[in-house]
Amino acid sequence: MSHIAKNKAKLLARIRRLKGQMEAIERSLEAEAPCADVLNQVASVRGAINGLTAELIEDHIHEHVLGVEDPAAREAGAEELIDVIRTYMK
After folding, report:
1. I need a labelling partner for 79 at 20 to 30 A (CA). Which of 1, 25, 35, 37 fits?
2. CA–CA separation, 12 vs 8, rounded Å?
3. Residue 83 belongs to a domain with what CATH number?
4. In the chain, how many domains are there?
5. Is the pLDDT of residue 1 over 70?
6. What is the pLDDT of residue 87?
């Protein structure tokens, strides 16, 4: 069982909260809420996304880098993570 599957319920709960936050932003825009209110909501979503990303990266490191004895598999796990971080940093 992969680490994603083990944490599936927790990860889906986070995604559902994010979805709710995005829907709140949509409602605020439709209601013509003040700009500062919308910006605060967007900042909250960004923080939640960053938290989710950090959790997934941490799990990946434990499962595919630190927890792997085969050097080639460990190298592959590290390279996957490097690629993801490069994409994330763009």
Report:
1. 1
2. 6
3. 1.20.58.1000
4. 1
5. no
6. 92
Q: What is the pTM of this model?
A: 0.83
Determine the straight-line distance between the first and last CA of the chain, rounded to whole angstroms.
31
- Segment 24-76, tens digit of pLDDT: 999 999 999 999 999 999 999 999 999 999 999 999 999 999 989 999 999 99
- List pLDDT tens digits, range 9-34: 999 999 999 999 999 999 999 999 99
Q: Are 62 and 53 in contact (CB under 8 A)?
A: no
Q: What is the DSSP string of 21-32?
A: HHHHHHHHHHTT
Residue for token pair 């967007």: 42
**Which residues, 6 or more positions from 40, have their beta carbon under 8 angstroms from its beta carbon?**
none
Q: Are 86 and 51 in contact (CB under 8 A)?
A: no
CA dihedral 61, 65, 69, 74 (to 10 degrees): 160
**Mutual orientation of helices 71-89 and 35-61 as an angle, nearest 10°?**
170
